[in-house]
Structure formats: structure tokens, C-alpha cells
Amino acid sequence: MIQKLGTKLQVHLSQLGVQKLKKVTFQNIVDDPDENEIITLGEIMKDLDKDGTLLDGVIVTSQSRVTKSSN
What we know:
This protein is an alpha+beta fold. A hairpin with a 6-residue loop joins strand 1 and strand 2 (about 20-25). About 5% of the residues are buried. The radius of gyration is 16 Å and the shape is elongated. It has 1 helix and 3 strands. The chain has a domain at about 30-65. Strands 2-1-3 form a 3-stranded antiparallel sheet.
């Protein structure tokens, strides 16, 4: 049996002069989010950060649990 556990987004931001990416995670988002809305969220997070911050990308993770049925 497959049980849906949830979907999350992780926005990756890069800052000038900093090698390590800044990661902002959003838990329990809607299933199958729209690509344009994902990018819009990433751009909003970029705009809320420091000047010179760039959107590196967004990772969408869907988790499910698979269990053996008790037949």
C-alpha cells in the first residue's frame, strides 16, 4: 500500500561572495505544485533577502510510505 506523506519545497538562494547556498524550506505544500508558482515563490524569497541575492533553484520533494498489505 502506498501512503502519501507530503510534499515540501526548498528554495536555494545564492549570495555574492558566499559559497554556501541559503536554503529556505516550506513543509506540507499542495500536491503537484504549478511550476510557475514555484518560481514565483523563489523570486519572492530572493526579493525579501539581501541585495545581490540570486535564485539558484527550487527543489520539490514528495514523500510516500510503501508498506506490505496484510493479506
